[in-house]
Each structure stands twice: as C-alpha cells, then as structure tokens.
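for the recovery benchmark. tokens below, seq after
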C-alpha cells in the first residue's frame, strides 16, 4: 500500500513558478514509476508528466513540455513537479500518482493517488 501526499500548490501570477512535491509513504517508493495529473473544474483528469523508478526517464504531455520538469529523489522518498512560465490554463488540482509501469499517460494504469493540491494561476 502506498499513500501519497501532495504539497506546494497555491496562487501565482501568470509567468510565475511553483514546485509541487509528493511524498509517498512506505518503503516501496522506488518500486513505482510516478506521475502527475491535473484536473480543471468540469474537465477530465489529464496526464502531465511521468518519471521512471530510477528517475532516468521522463515523459511529458505536450501541455508541459519545455515548462514543466518532473524529478524524484528516492533517498528522500519525494517526487517533484517544477512548473515554470505558468499560464492561466494551468489552473487545476494537481494529483500525484504511482504506477508499477513507466510510460503510461492513462490514469487507470496508476494504482495509487494523492488527494491533490490546488494550483491557481491569475492572469
């Protein structure tokens, strides 16, 4: 069982930056690929980025390429999402998720989810 807790969300002006963190519990953190998804009000949950177990491979949705960076520190049991040049359309609840397989952008292939952290970008 893996429990995920996100932090780092907040209100930021367009063009600003935020860094989200996700701290999974349990000693099996390094056994999972990790991903970030987001969900805007009234919209479906969308893939943002994923990272392999070792951190050596990453995968991004087009929406975040060049602006978002996913990383992980297995020694600290933490995965991060650095978001730069934020736009109003990035406003959403951001969710951290864990999957036994790397490379999926489908939310139903992630087994564990956090409760989300709100990111609001004002224009």
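predicted aa per position
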């Amino acid at each position: 069982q893996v429990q995920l807790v996100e932090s780092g969300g907040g209100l930021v002006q367009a063009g600003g930056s935020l860094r989200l963190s996700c701290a999974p519990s349990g000693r099996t953190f390094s056994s999972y690929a990790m991903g970030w998804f987001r969900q805007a009000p009234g919209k479906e949950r969308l893939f943002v980025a994923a990272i392999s177990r070792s951190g050596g491979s990453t995968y991004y949705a087009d929406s975040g390429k060049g602006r978002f960076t996913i990383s992980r520190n297995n020694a600290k049991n933490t995965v991060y999402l650095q978001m730069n040049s934020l736009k109003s359309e990035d406003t959403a609840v951001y969710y951290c998720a864990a999957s036994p397989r790397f490379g999926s952008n489908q939310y139903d292939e992630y087994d564990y989810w956090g409760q989300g952290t709100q990111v609001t970008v004002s224009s």
